[in-house]
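Worked example 2:
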Amino acid sequence: MTLKKVPHLAHWGAFTAVTERGRLIDCEPFFADSNPSPMLQSIPQLVYSAKRIRQPMVRRSWLKKRENSDGSLRGREDFVAVPWDTALDLIADENRRVRDRYGASGIFTGSYGWSSAGRVNHARSLVRRFYFSGGGGVDQQGNYSWGAAQFFLPYVIGSYMPLTGRVTDWPGVIAHAEVVLAFGGLALKNAQVASGGAGEHTLQPALKQLAAKGTRVINVSPMRDDCPDFLHAEWIAIRPNTDVALMLALGYEIERLGAADSDFLHSHCVGYPQLRAYLLGESDGVAKTPAWASAIAGVPAARIAELARQLIGKRSFITCSYAVQRAHRGEQPYWMMIALSAMLGQPGLPGAGFSFGHGSMNGVGNPRIDTPAPQLPTGANPAGLAIPVARICDMLLHPGAEYRFQGETQRYPEIHLMHWAGGNPFHHHQQLNRLAEGWQRPDTVIVQDIVWTPAAQMADIVLPVTTTLERNDIGGSSRDRFVFAMHQAIAPQHQARNDFDIFADLAERLGYRHRFTENRNEMQWIAHLYQQCAAAQQSKGVEWPDFETFWQRGYVEVPAGDSDYVYMADFRADAQANPIATASGKIELFSQTIADYQLEDMAGHPEWRAPQEWLGSELARQFPLHLISIQPADRLHSQLDATENVQNRKTAGHETLWMHPDDAAARGIRHGDEIEVYNQRGRMLSGVQLNDGLTPGVVVTSTGAWFDPGFGEPWQPRDRAGNPNVLTLDIGTSSLTQGPNAMSCLVEVRAWQSLQNDR
């Protein structure tokens, strides 16, 4: 038996690819990773999946009629196989036609998705580089992970960079924090993945050190399992989307007890008088007392008052998961968390202050010299056009309509050509039946991917792409300690081609191959990106080996740095000498800029306004369960959903929905039952598992099940896979940020089998 082993990398970890006679048989975790992800074992199943796209395909009626094809047949009609040259000629011709007739505003280049860990064949970067090199198009701004916070935090703390993982390091938290207050928990499953890949998974070791020290950890979440058992976290079961009400009551108690740090609030903040007036009810007549918050959040008033006392006088570290801001008015808890930390005088202290994303993604809080990871440049978009990432449906369905964003009024363009590479919008986006309707509108939809995702099944032209194992690349994350050589392990399967080569050949047909490739091939780009990283390291006094040595060894390590990083330490030490990039140079607990926008849905300071759907709303009488969608434990978003390992974890053949036993009993539902989850926007099938670690009235499911309304059949309004985004609202978090609101909504549940029997 002849085995071959080469270094490689995925978003869920580095590994050695093991092949036998040219076939991938195993993925052995990287030696430095003490807590590797089991998702590595699903990679061979993806590579050899029956759902691989085997050759270029074109939808039958589109091939016949081109621009006059009926878009409503997308997802319902069969495909015709064509040679690669024919497919590329068709795409190039469509590019010319649309650009000549409609200009850059007719082309949507905003393909969204993590795609692969490799940076040269990173599809999202390549599709932008290709279209930007050819005259530009309509791009997307922000992301689905922390899109609301990205456009909101600069008003309050001057930057959104802490969202990327550049926050107070775990070693400092472990050494100094007396209390860790985690809104949205510290879920280990989320830390299996890192954008760009990971050489080591660090959250579990960090939390075990925290537990060994005996640090008090408090998990504020509708789910007890948002913290691992070994952490012995205190669980405060809260109603979804009410975190800010609880935080406001904590602020009220801190002020009432005379514990607010007036010196810090005066020297490092602006706007506390306005916030204080709101907390005490002086500005609106409603004091934000623990009793007031209890009626909203479902947390006993005595527990809220006790929590305030647990924070006062302690070195406290307060963190919010990304999920907390992926909801209607999701900006508010982030703002009030910052305000709470400021009231306690904690920002900039070792092991204290506020943070985002600890427990939301691997690498957040990792000690590492602050240097960039490998990154293929996209170049500037010469058209200067973009929409907020989650406003795709509005753009497709209402071209020319006005919308508010960042205090300005803008208009949606009219899209005629949409090119999606390396992502599955029928996972990320909310209200998928609405997205399916909008997806019919463009003249042409192009998708290039590895497998037949829902987006590919609803395209006009589909191109088969290699997995990372079938090509060479370089990978790494700006928050991980390693950069990796990604060696090709196996030959391309079927007729799959590399993303880089596909776009280079398209650029040649359109006359700008040189601008796109800069006369570099794949390996030359890999070497170039490595050399750029090495130069950045050298500027920090770190020498890396030459490229040939790196490529042969398979990785290079980034030093951790000489001392723990403490976010805002310089600002705390001297706010005048080290101002932050807000309008005032200080933390803005009241933002005059936001107030001057005169937004109908946001004031100039943190506040409680009821979200459109929550358990305290009138709609809860009709749909009395609050559905929360979480990141899955067995895949990244919708990646790997087509593998056997993931499919075998389903319940009753569908995505699992966790339900409190009392809620299930009230509906005659038992563990393992097949159920229908529904509201006024859609329906989906799921399988039930009972869990008493939920706030009553809350049901939970994972995102990422492949949207399945019946492709190739009469269209069904009911999703058969269990994708919660057939149910969620398609609204922005606010008119300020237009962030994604795809995490939760109100629903009802009924037993599917009994419903079938009744019919």
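The chain has 26 helices and 30 strands. The longest helix spans residues 84-102.
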